[in-house]
């Protein structure tokens, strides 16, 4: 029922008129239309008939909110896909790591070009950012090649764990070039990471010549461990460059430079090494396709996880890469890691978890 105006009611009482509004002729249709327009819809109210309010709005907000833990699930799925991709790299032994990287660049290029055309970002980028994009592409692709070489040269677990030292180098390089704060806690995490890498590599000048004598493939292991360590440094520099660029450049354009520089670098390296050869086995060709698919899938799910979940929690769940690497190494290669590797892995993972927890704590203040 509509409220009655008090002033009008008083005048009608004084004049002896009834308290009912009698509409003038021809206004009945307009009144009905007005009432229909003012009638609240589902979930609306009389004050704001076109907008949901109260418990109805809260229910709709809850429906639109992402499922709790979905970001962590995406991170876990990303870690699994990256680990499976590294397993395929380890399985493909007849193809050089540089050639595997070239195939992955070609695969990603076929996907990036339509994306750039659709987003209308161009293929060159802003004039002031091109040098940074070029450095990002060269260093990022070099890091990829070194990591693939490490997978082929040393154990899957060792290469994965050493590559996890990247956050420590990122803190140091960002402190030098971006003037970011380097706290005592960062120094502690750095010490843990260096200790873990030393336990995994086991250099002879610290552990004696017995290590070389007991491990026949120690020289190959040392090359792979060194490649993984340089990969971590290059990846850290790449992250610092991406921080420098910020949001001024579309991320697709950044990947484009990475793919173009990587493919160029791979072609030059393969021409010098003379290692260019198509895989003879059909299974190896399938592995090459799967490496590109799983690598791309891992990047997509990781990017999605960062969008809907806190970075600290994503970094914590990302350590599952190490767990998957150990599991795959034992199941598919029947290679049980030594206690040195287990101890070094615990040190590196503890350093990564500590850094992630500290950032999470600082961001929650």
Automatic annotation (TrEMBL):
* Localization per record: Cell membrane; Endoplasmic reticulum membrane
Q: Name one GO cellular component term.
A: plasma membrane
Which Gene Ontology BP terms does the record give? calcium ion export across plasma membrane; regulation of cytosolic calcium ion concentration
Q: How does it sit in the membrane?
A: Multi-pass membrane protein
Q: Where is this region: Disordered?
A: 1-38
Alphabetized UniProt keyword annotations: Cell membrane, Endoplasmic reticulum, Membrane, Repeat, Transmembrane, Transmembrane helix
Binding partners and assembly: Interacts with STIM1; stimulated by depletion of intracellular calcium. Interacts with ORAI1. Interacts with the plasma membrane calcium-transporting ATPases ATP2B1 and ATP2B4. Interacts with ATP1A1, ATP2A2, KPNB1 and XPO1.
Q: What's the name of the protein? A: Solute carrier family 35 member G1
Q: Which PANTHER family match?
A: ACYL-MALONYL CONDENSING ENZYME-RELATED, SOLUTE CARRIER FAMILY 35 MEMBER G1
């Amino acid at each position: 029922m509509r409220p009655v105006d008090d002033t009008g009611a008083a005048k009608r009482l004084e004049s002896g008129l009834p308290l009912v509004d009698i509409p003038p002729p021809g206004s009945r249709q307009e009144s009905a239309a007005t009432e229909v327009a003012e009638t609240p819809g589902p979930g609306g109210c009389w004050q704001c008939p076109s907008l949901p309010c109260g418990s109805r709005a809260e229910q709709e907000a809850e429906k639109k909110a992402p499922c709790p833990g979905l970001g962590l699930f995406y991170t876990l799925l990303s870690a699994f896909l990256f680990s499976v991709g590294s397993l395929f790299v380890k399985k493909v032994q007849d193809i050089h790591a540089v050639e595997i990287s070239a195939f992955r660049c070609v695969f990603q290029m076929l996907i990036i070009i339509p994306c750039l055309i659709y987003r209308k970002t161009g293929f060159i980028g802003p004039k002031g950012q091109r040098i940074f994009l070029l450095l990002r592409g060269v260093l990022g692709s070099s890091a990829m090649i070194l990591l693939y070489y490490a997978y082929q040269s040393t154990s899957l677990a060792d290469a994965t764990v050493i590559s996890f030292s990247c956050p420590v180098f990122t803190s140091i390089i960002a402190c030098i070039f971006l003037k970011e704060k380097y706290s005592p806690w960062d120094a502690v995490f750095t010490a843990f990471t260096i200790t873990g890498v030393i336990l995994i590599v086991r250099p002879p000048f610290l552990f004696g010549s017995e290590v070389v004598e007991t491990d026949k493939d120690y020289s190959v292991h040392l090359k792979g461990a060194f490649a993984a360590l340089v990969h971590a440094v290059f990846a850290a520099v790449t992250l610092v460059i991406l921080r420098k660029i910020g949001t001024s450049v579309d991320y697709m354009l950044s990947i484009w430079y990475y793919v173009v520089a990587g493919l160029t670098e791979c072609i030059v390296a393969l021409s010098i090494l003379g290692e260019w050869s198509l895989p003879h086995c059909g299974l190896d060709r399938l592995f090459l396709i799967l490496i590109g698919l799983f690598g791309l899938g891992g990047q997509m799910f990781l990017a999605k996880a960062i969008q809907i979940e806190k970075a600290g929690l994503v970094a914590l769940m990302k350590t599952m890469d190490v767990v998957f690497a150990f599991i795959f190494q034992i199941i598919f290669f029947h290679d049980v890691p030594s206690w040195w590797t287990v101890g070094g892995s615990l040190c590196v993972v503890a350093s990564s978890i500590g850094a992630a927890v500290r950032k999470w704590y600082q961001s929650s203040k």
